[in-house]
Predict the 3D structure of the following.
Amino acid sequence: MKFCNKNFRKTFLRDWLIIGCLVFFTFTGNRLSGKVCAQSRQGEKIYLQKCAKCHGRRGEGVEPVYPEPLVGDLSIKELAEYIEETMPEKKPEECVGPEATEVAKHIHYQFYSITAQARNKPPRVAFSRLTNRQYRNCVADLALSFQGERRIGTKRGLTLRHYKNRGLNKNNLVVEKLVPVVDISFDKEGKPDEKIEFEKFTTTWKGS
């Protein structure tokens, strides 16, 4: 069969090239992953044989030999150099070179580094009780959220209302205006506004 369409031939070759690359990288990645896992197991094996007796299986420490947990901020290279010089105690020649490096990698990843510490002991989420005011505010915010988006007007201040008696209804409303603050001041006759002509009145402020 001959491919007469050049575009079809280019598409065919491109697809096979992509498939070949995917197969290659998948195979290479699996080999590298297997190699890393083998190295990790090797470091763990050496650690359990030569270090766990004093430091514990998870670096938690062992009483009374070395009670402190095995944690710190050294890099893998610095940790490997320290192991070569001092570990195991009184027999540092037993863990040197590649073995020291593999042990350092295992320790660093499993429990030594700051990242490992955070992974092994994640922060505890604590619940706290709300105060009465916090609870009321939460309930009010929740109720308002069902009313859709609320637009904030351009006016700022408190709504002041004067009523000619104790009845807070529109029929008794005498004065309604916007004021910047709550100002309780009266004239010589003991009235808060010149429009108030009654001995009994009620004043309210609303807003925030």
About this structure: The longest helix spans residues 6-50.
